Amino acid sequence: MSAIQLIARAAAVVMVGLSLVGCGKSEGGAGGGSGGGGKGAAGASNTNDQGTGDIVIGHYASLTGAEATFGISTDNGIKMAVAERNQAGGVRGRPIRLITYDNQGKPQESQTVVTRLIESDRVVAVLGEVASSRSLAGAPICQRKGVPMVSPSSTNPDVTSVGDMISRVCFIDPFQGLVGAKFARENLGFTRGATLYNRAQAYSAGLNSNFVEAFRTLGGQVLTEQAYSDGDNDFSAQLTAIRERSPEFIYLPGYYTEVVNIARQARRLGIDIPLIGGDGWDSEELKNAGDSLNNSYFSNHYSHEDTRPEVQDFVRRYREVYQKIPDGLAALGYDAARLLFDAMERAESLHGRDLASSINSTTNFAGVTGMISIDANRNPTKDAVILEVVNGQPKYKATVRP
Amino acid sequence: MKTLINQARALSPAAWSVIPRALWPVAAGLAVAVLMHAVVGPNVPGFTAKMMLVAGINIILAVSLTVVNGFTGQFSMGHAGFMAVGGYVAASITYYGSIKFFGSADFAGGALSWTGSGPHGGGPLGKGDLLFMGSCLVGGLAAAGAGYIVGLPSLRLRGDYLAIVTLGFGEIVRVLLQGTPDQVQPWRAAEAAETPWYSLMLKLGGPKGFNLLPTYTTLFWVYLFVTITLIVCYRLKNSSTGRAFLSIREDEIASQAMGVDVTRYKVRAFVIASFFAGTAGGLYAMDIGAISASDLGFLKSFECIIMVVLGGMGSISGATLAAIILTALPEILRELPPVWPAGLALLAVMAVVQGAHRRWHPRSLVVVAAVTLVAELGRRYCASQGINLAEYRMILYALLLIVMMISRPQGLLGVREVWEIFGRRARRPGAVASPPGASSGVSP
Amino acid sequence: MTQFLQTLFDGVTVGCLYALIALGYTMVYGILKFINFAHSDVFALGVWMSITIAGWMGIGAAGQPTPPLYLALLVLLGTMVTCGAVGFTVERLAYRPLRRAPRLNVLITAIGVSLLLQNLGQRPFMFGPYPRSLPTLVESGTLFTVMGVPVRVSDVAVIGMALVLMTALQILIFRTKFGSAMRAVSFNTRTASLMGINADRVISITFIVGTMLAAAAGFLYGMKYGGQAKQTADSMWVMLGLKAFVAAVVGGIGNVRGAVLGGLLIGLIEFFGVAYLSSQYRDAYVFAILIAVLLLRPEGVLGRATVEKV
Fold first, then answer.
1. Fewer Cβ close by (within 10 Å): the C or N end of chain B?
2. Is B217 domain-assigned?
3. What is the mean pLDDT of chain A?
């Protein structure tokens, strides 16, 4: 046996032994969780809060994997909110401690980290996730254990219907679909549209069907619905098919990672009609599109050009810390955390049910992404903005009210 | 000649004894499941219970894949596809069945599957449990049917080509599931109750995933299925069918020459493995409360394969061990605990084993000590520099995988089972020590 | 008619890219008999290295004039060299110790290498998790228009470069001494070693050539699409790699001409399927063709059926 082999073998053996040992002791502090069959009633209330010391809140997000940027942006926003709050003396005179766990963008891992946050780290509230599929995995656990969960940016309506512990600070897909349709139909006066969406992605497919429904209700006509999938980067076949039908605009409910390339390929094929999209477009990286996204619009949670002081303060501080213009996800993460702190101050106690009812009774909370009032379905009623893309830079165009 | 046949018949057990033999895995499963539910579950921290549950589902996946990849030597890369088929069928039956039979998609189980939300019937079993249990079994059967269809091409294909076909199958399942229409949500239950079964069952949510499922999966159900899977696969390994599987793995042509119906056994291996993968899919869906085809692509299949290979091709206990380790490892790498206790414990074990066998390898002891020291110093360095190891855990995981494959190509246990390591070797045909695929390795 | 021609043209261009990636799969398979799952990550590395190198040279950024051709070729060369080095290292450290191990182990190792490259590339000190814009190194204007189909410089560059590289490979394999050594090792490693061929060296060089082709494909991909590249852990790279792999299998794995044919075939089927059937089932077409080909002609269109000897 060569020395290298021996070392490699020993390393492997140590790691395996380590994992077995760690398995048993990976979490010492938390005793007596309810496991498979604890006791409690519907919407049970946790008593994770000890009344003194740090207030612990958890965040689960995709910090690695294909959707890493979403998690990182949101986490940046939340971190900033926590730091500011602690500087200002914390909540109820106690400092806040944030624990962020990565879930690699997987639902099953979301469940394990949410369980870990609640059972081992004893968090009083959970923030997360960006993607609805992961929020839908984490939400039942929060509901079961009676820990409030605030989703910063899951737009699927199903998420908050899991139960009274679950709320969010962003608007939902049907509303955003309606916003896009209204803008195309009424502001731009179009009647003939086409769509191109990612059929492997819950966000994109959901927004597409909501848009199509809303646009048809408003008297418009959707000539063709083309689809692509996660691995695709060549959209010329779909775009050629769209060109054949000569619509007045194309609705692109995708993420900016795809939209930039779709736009460039569309312009190359000689398609010069406006492109309209949703909040998935929002990113500083949109600048990569150059001039190919000119004459395009997307609906978003906020505009960083908004002159309201809270927006300008937020943008300035965010740029100081991260040297980036905050995207919508960062703003929503920031708002979710701040809304949570606000509810904590108002709550009778930090125990699950009290905190949840405090969150659910939030009205007119002045967030960066607008005035947030949580409705009976634990969704916020808030405005959406329409931004126009000019040489890769989003410019404020209009505000659409619900 | 006739007497010989009669003698052979006399050796075979009486017909009535089939029933207890068929039922004892279920009985053992029930015993283990009750133990997990009543003793282990309530007494371990909640996070550990959750990890045990996830590990259990992974054990079912790994052990069932061992039947195809380990015993039979075929290479399936579409295990997640079977899991998706079973999971979606089970989810569809549980969800729409709840709406049709009970009027709403809410949880309607008893104490055994109660996870802490909503009311429950009080008794150990509720009406919903039977539905859930049945749906998992039907899911398994559906997956087995898919396994039969996929197994058929193995008439013509072997080795890598079969692997590619199974990979293609998994991807096609994913694409088809993503093309299904929207789900009928719980608040539209009245509308769903009016819709006929056949159109309802296919409303699986497409790309949005099949969400808001009632959650029934508890340690009880998982370990019921885990135990049944383990016992069935273990008995399979030592049955005539299992010996046929192993002979196909060792040499397909020779076993054909010996009268083994190669095609039939290959298809059978696929069907058995798919059945268990399907039940695991059902448990997975009703654990998370949602199932989405995009999460059950080839990456999930790779995870299953890695467990099988790491455990040792054809070792049931090895696959089990690997499933446990690979479930725990990413969580441990999140916050690496001190390394030296594990290193010391390992040194002690090695010293004891080597002493008992009177075969000393001083160099191996030194190397283990050195690696432990380096790992511990590295960990402390990262901690002192504020380097967050959690961000590097996938890199560490990948490195570990490579190192493991190089340093121990036969996996943790090779073809042996845990209890065979220190005993006499090669007691039964299943334990004939010869690394799988050695005959089909790098040319000649 | 325009749509037909457009689809045909796009299918051929993308098919050329698939073919270049498929060549890497097929060469490694031909010589080592295993599926190198890390190949798609080398392709992604090629895309990102060309971005990085162009960045170092300060050329091709949005708004800048298109650099002269020799600079673009320099970027291509740099990309191919770095990726070749990575390919060499991977083979030396991860695959060579497994020369005598079961094939499945090598496959798992390849998956491990793939995970490693993906997750390393995503770290901030490498390429980072954010998508980055691809440099414009080749003029992207329209060269001429055939019946309403614009033929762009970058498309011509892709097809031309692919043809040049494939011809070079064909000459390397069938007209040089090293090529005979390669074919000998592929045919029977042990006998080739007995004949005085240094099999390890041949395998190393095959790996380097394969990864260099993937790197070139990555560069061309960047030229063709422009826009932005997704981060290395994105599933799109694996999916692209899988399609190229399917192309290699359909053409007949281990067969260089088969890989080219397969690449074109998959590209055309994909594009005609999307254009004339439905864009819903894009990936399903590719895999359905794969299964059909494997069932009707398991050795692939141009592959040679091997009879297993007892």
1. N
2. yes
3. 85
pLDDT of residue C296: 84
Residues of chain A with Cβ-Cβ distance to B120 below 8 Å are none
Q: Residue A25 is which amino acid?
A: K
Say which DSSP state A91 is in.
Answer: B
What pLDDT, on a 0 to 100 scale, did the predictor assign at position A38?
Answer: 31
Is C231 part of the contact surface with chain B (CB cutoff 8 Å)? no
What pLDDT is stored for residue B37 in this prediction? 85
CA distance C291 to chain B (A): 6
Is B332's CB within 8 Å of A26's CB?
yes
CA distance C38 to C25: 10
pLDDT tens string C46-63: 999 999 999 898 887 766
The full set of domains in chain A, from first to last, is 55-171+308-382 (3.40.50.2300), 173-300 (3.40.50.2300)
User: H or E stretch including C287?
Assistant: helix C282-296
Q: B218 and A37: CB-CB below 8 Å?
A: yes
Residues B192 and B341 both lie in one domain:
no
pLDDT of residue A7: 54
Q: Do B395 and C99 touch (CB under 8 A)?
A: no
- Reduce the DSSP state of residue C62 to 3 states and report it: coil
B71 in a structural domain: yes
Say which of C100, C106, C116 has its CB closest to residue B398. C116
- Determine the residue of chain B that is closest to A145 in CA distance: B116
pLDDT for position A343: 95
Chain B contact set for C295 (CB, 8 A): 153, 156-157
Sign of the Cα pseudo-torsion (A159, A164, A168, A173, in order): positive
Domains of chain C, by residue range, sit at 2-123+153-296
Contact C233 A241 (CB under 8 A): no
- Enumerate the residues of chain A whose CB falls inside 8 A of the CB of residue B300: none
Counting as low any pLDDT under 50, the low residues of chain B are 424-444
Sign of CA dihedral A235, A264, A230, C163: positive
Task: Tell me how far apart the alpha carbons of residues B269 and B251 are, in angstroms, rounded to a whole number.
Answer: 16
- B389 in the same domain as B259: no
Provide the CATH number for the domain formed by C2-123+153-296 in this structure. Answer: 1.10.3470
